[in-house]
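ESCALATION

Customer reports they have been waiting on this structure for their group meeting. Please prioritize. Original submission:
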Amino acid sequence: MTTLIVKHKHEIMWWMSRLTIMLTALFLSFSLAGQAYATEIQMGYEGNLVFEPNEVTVAAGDTITFVNNALPPHNIMVDNRPDLSRESLMFSPGETQEIVFADAGDFEFFCAPHAGAGMKGVIHVE
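Update from on-call: job pushed to the front of the queue and completed.
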C-alpha cells in the first residue's frame, strides 16, 4: 500500500491541489452570492450641498441607503414617485433613510430644501 502511494505521489498531489481550488471557489461563490452590496449615497458630502455620488446604477430590488452627513436638514424626493420619496427631514449626522427601488427605470431625485442649490441626482435601475 505504501509503495502504491509513493508511486503515485505526484498524481495524488495534483488531484489534491485541484480539489482545494474547486472547494475554495465553491465556498467563495456561496459566501459572496449571499452578500447584497448596499449602495450608499451621502447627503451634504464634504460640507457641500450635494449628493455623493449623485448618479448610481443598481439592480431592480436593490436598496439605497441615504446618509445625512452635513448641512442639514435633508430629505429625499423622487420625481413623480411619492411612494419612493422621504419627505421627513433628517437633522442629525449619521441619520439614514433606505429606499428599495423595485422597478426598472431612471429616477431623478432631489433634496427639497436644497434643490435650488443643485442638490439633485439620478438613480438608474436595471
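Sent to customer with the following note: Helices lie at 2-7, 9-33.
Escalation resolved.
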